[in-house]
Design a protein that fits this description.
The chain is about 60% helix and about 15% strand. It is an alpha/beta fold. It has a six-stranded parallel sheet, sandwiched between helices. Helix 2 packs across helix 12 and helix 11 runs antiparallel to helix 12. The chain is globular, with a radius of gyration of 18 Å.
């Protein structure tokens, strides 16, 4: 992934990078608009162990690349290549704190701008178009999108058309983890593939219904993965 992004930087060519998980698969099954936006992504990585397990069952194995784990490697790559970075989404405080933390960990990193859109932000609105134009004008080559699905994927898909030289990395709560606005599960919890349970315990009202929907589609996904197992196409 890093090699592919580095080539895009060298060619001054934009991209959209999405991080797929079970929640996204639920949304992809239910929303044609989200499916269209996902089809516009140039790169898609596995942001969840169930995706990795399903890929192995289908004999199309991929590696786990959580969105939160992409932030520092992508920031380091941007700094190495002299590419400016923009932070978009979350809150103004989280973006300010994230910028300070990133620059402390990646001293050569140039942060061109931080934009926290208002509540109710619509990626298809005229305001969103103006923000894309601002991102293009600030000189950034990489934009970290911390809007959550489906808004970040929709904004990235639109950005690929409006600002073709910009790279968009959809990283969800990644910047909040960097800033400390949210606390990520300990490494031992992640090693047990139980980060989802940690997050649900921290925010049950918001995440319990979401995870229930994710578990509900697992049987059909397992059947689809098994069907792909012997498909040579």
């Amino acid at each position: 992934m890093l090699a592919a992004v580095a080539q895009r930087f060298a060619d001054k060519q934009g991209f959209a990078l999405a991080t797929i998980n079970l929640d996204h698969l639920v949304k992809l099954h239910r929303s044609e608009r989200f499916a269209r936006d996902y089809a516009e992504q140039d790169f898609v990585v596995a942001d969840g162990n169930p995706i990795v397990w399903l890929s192995k069952i289908s004999r199309r194995p991929v590696e786990l690349v959580p969105g939160s784990d992409m932030v520092l490697p992508l920031a380091s790559l941007a700094a190495e290549k002299g590419v400016k970075v923009a932070l978009f989404g979350s809150t103004e405080k989280s973006l300010t704190d994230s910028a300070a933390m990133l620059q402390a960990k990646v001293p050569m990193l140039q942060i061109a701008t931080c934009i926290a859109p208002p509540m109710g932000f619509d990626p298809e609105s005229d305001d969103a178009l103006a923000m894309l134009e601002d991102l293009a004008a600030c000189g950034a080559g990489l934009v970290f999108l911390a809007l959550g699905a489906p808004k970040q994927e929709a904004f990235a898909a639109r950005g690929r058309k409006v600002t073709p030289t910009l790279g968009f990395a959809s990283i969800g709560a990644g910047l909040d983890f960097v800033s400390g606005a949210q606390t990520r599960a300990p490494r031992w919890v992640r090693a047990l593939a139980m980060e989802w349970a940690w997050r649900m315990f921290k925010s049950p009202a918001r995440l319990l219904p979401r995870y229930a929907q994710c578990f509900a589609i697992l049987p059909s996904l397992l059947l689809e993965a098994w069907a792909l197992r012997n498909d040579k196409r």
